[in-house]
Design a protein that fits this description.
- There is one protein chain.
- With about 525 residues, this protein is an alpha/beta fold.
- Helices cover about 45% and strands about 15% of the residues.
- The protein has 22 helices and 14 strands.
- It has helices at about 1-35, 35-40, 75-80, 85, 90-95, 100-110, 130-135, 135-140, 145-150, 150-170, 270, 280-290, 310-315, 315-320, 335-350, 350-355, 360-365, 375-395, 415-430, 440-460, 465-470, 485-510, and strands at about 115-120, 125-130, 175-180, 190-195, 205-210, 220-225, 230, 235, 240, 260-265, 295-305, 325-330, 400-405, 460-465.
- The strands form four sheets. A five-stranded antiparallel sheet has the order 2-1-5-4-3, with helices on both faces. Strands 11-10-12-13-14 form a five-stranded parallel sheet, sandwiched between helices.
- A hairpin with a 5-residue loop joins strand 1 (about 115-120) and strand 2 (about 125-130).
- The radius of gyration is 26 Å and the shape is globular.
- It starts with a helix and ends in a 15-residue tail after the last helix.
- The model is unreliable at about 50-75, about 80-85, about 130-155, about 180-190, about 210-215 and about 515-523 (pLDDT under 50).
């Protein structure tokens, strides 16, 4: 009887192992034989030929005069740090400690750090930082709430180190790097204790992702990663930013009379293109000017790779400075991946789901169960939709319409098995994360597009159904979200077809020549 039970238990253990090893073996074989995976590994992904009329060079827009914006003010100081502060971490930390609470929260969001305000006893008073970290504020006050996610033994060590070092730091009045880390957080962080002494607050604890405050590499396009690009940056003939840091031509300010100006807000899927003139905003500009030859239409590419809807809210005043007549937003991919996948995985997912998501067998056959529930997905999208609603209302208060677009995604129903496997390989590798599958991304984007369309109808936003009209085959996508040039052209053509009537109506309402158009910010 005991022998039979032992054999049964062994079989019950061996069957899952056999299924897992078999799935892994098949995956490795397909990875080594898939031509698309091999092409990506060697960096030779061919650009499809389209023969589109948009491939032919079109005339460059006439030269535009440029007047720098006034960068005075507290938020501008936070946004555009001096080179000396950026290059000297000690000076940056001292500067951060001198900021008031509202500026501190703004700066923490921009620079990817978490700042924890503590009193003289080391007890937490407030927390500032990116939304994913701010959600930990309740945990910092009660160490017993999420023991699996936060590895509480490391959390206890961090708090003990802060309390032990605090008297010395306050006595010397200088910042101190603590001999501990914050590995209880989703990402490894360095811990720095900065004296403050403002009222009840005694010090600020900076939980900083290693390297986050290091100066950008000389050849980097970013001033602040995933937030803004360097001004006047050039990378050969194909990539250049203007004096305001946008991948576009110089921008005339104040806006010349008779100019109709559209801003395209987004991330890498807005900024992308072989050359500046081949991004979808510039192609849209070409098509609209061809339709309305008696008018001057400018479409400005305000895309920044890696950015999010929250960053657009923070940069709202900069967008308003550009005096737009229409704002077009193609945004959501980074938000969905962070909110619905990464944050959920690290902060809320049951331990069993986190563990099983690393199983090739479970990921292949139970990918939907390994996602958040539909209710959790819908809740995670609210912050994205709320940010877009804020932009709609804020621009609308100045008479500027806002158009939002659904996000194009490769359609698995139209992909071969070879192409589907490539996306399964590409998706987690592109994001440097394990345990995710392309079908999960497709499902989340479809639900986001549905929620976005619903919100747009409720609030009267202009809705552009790019996802619904886009030919989602893999010859248009070079990975799970970025497009080949032919895909960018198709996206521009859809935007153009959907916006023509709106632009025609708004052009009829433009002020006559001699009067400034758009909305100028109050000085």
């Amino acid at each position: 009887m005991v022998f039979g039970s032992t054999i049964l238990i062994l079989w019950l253990c061996l069957i899952p192992l056999a299924l897992e090893f078999g799935t892994v073996a098949v995956y490795v074989y397909r990875m080594n034989t898939n031509p698309l995976v091999q092409a990506r590994a060697t960096g030779h992904i061919p650009q499809p030929e389209t023969g589109s009329a948009l491939q032919t060079p079109h005339p460059t827009a006439p030269p535009k005069s440029y007047r720098p914006l006034d960068l005075s003010g507290a938020e501008r100081e936070v946004l555009y740090r001096s080179d000396a502060l950026r290059a000297d971490e000690e000076s940056w930390i001292a500067w951060f400690g001198s900021l008031g609470p509202s500026q501190r929260g703004f700066a923490a969001r921009l620079h990817g750090i978490v700042a924890v305000s503590v009193d003289a006893e080391g007890e937490v008073l407030a927390i500032y930082g990116p939304p994913s970290f701010e959600r930990l504020s309740s945990v910092l006050g009660d160490v017993d709430r999420r023991p699996i996610v936060l590895k509480l033994e490391r959390f206890a060590e961090w708090r003990a180190a802060v309390k032990e070092a605090l008297p010395g730091v306050l006595a010397k009045g200088v910042p101190m790097r603590l001999d501990t880390d914050a590995s209880f957080l989703p990402f490894p962080c360095a811990v720095t204790l900065v004296p403050s002494g403002g009222g009840q607050e005694a010090a600020i604890v900076l939980l900083r992702v290693d390297g986050a405050l290091s100066p950008p590499q000389p050849d980097s396009r970013y001033e602040i990663p995933a937030f803004n690009l360097k001004r006047g940056f050039h990378d050969g003939a194909d990539y250049a930013t203007n004096e305001l840091g946008w991948r576009d031509d110089p921008i005339a300010l104040p806006k010349p009379a008779g100019t109709f100006r559209i801003l395209c807000l987004g991330s890498s899927t807005t900024e992308e293109g072989i050359t500046n003139s081949q991004t979808y905003p510039n192609l849209l500009e070409f098509l609209l000017n061809r339709d309305f030859p008696g008018h001057r239409i400018e479409v400005i590419n305000c895309g920044v790779p890696g950015t999010s809807s929250a960053a657009h809210v923070l940069r709202y005043s900069e967008y308003l400075d550009l005096q737009p007549d229409l704002v077009l937003i193609y945004e959501g991919i980074n938000d969905v991946l962070r909110n619905s996948l990464l944050e959920w995985r690290y902060l809320e997912a049951p331990a069993i789901k986190r563990i099983l998501s690393f199983s090739r067998f479970c990921l292949a056959w139970g990918w939907r169960w390994l996602l958040p529930t539909d209710g959790e997905i819908d809740a995670s999208k609210q912050s994205i939709l709320d940010n877009l609603s804020f932009l709609h209302k804020a621009f609308g208060a100045h008479g500027i319409p806002v158009a939002v677009s659904t996000i194009a995604v490769p359609n698995t129903a139209r992909l071969s098995e070879e192409e589907q496997f490539y996306l399964d390989f590409n998706f987690p590798n592109q994001w440097w994360i394990a345990g995710f599958k392309f079908l999960q991304y497709e499902y989340l984007l479809q639900r986001y597009n549905e929620a976005l369309a619903s919100r747009a109808r409720e609030q009267g936003m202009i809705l552009i159904p790019v996802a619904e009209k886009f030919d989602g085959t893999l010859d248009k996508f070079q990975d799970f979200c970025h497009m080949f040039q032919c895909g960018i052209e198709e996206k521009a053509a859809i935007m153009h077809a959907e916006l023509r009537e709106t632009v025609a109506r708004l052009l009829g309402n433009m002020p006559p020549a001699g009067e400034s158009g758009g909305v100028a910010r109050e000085s």
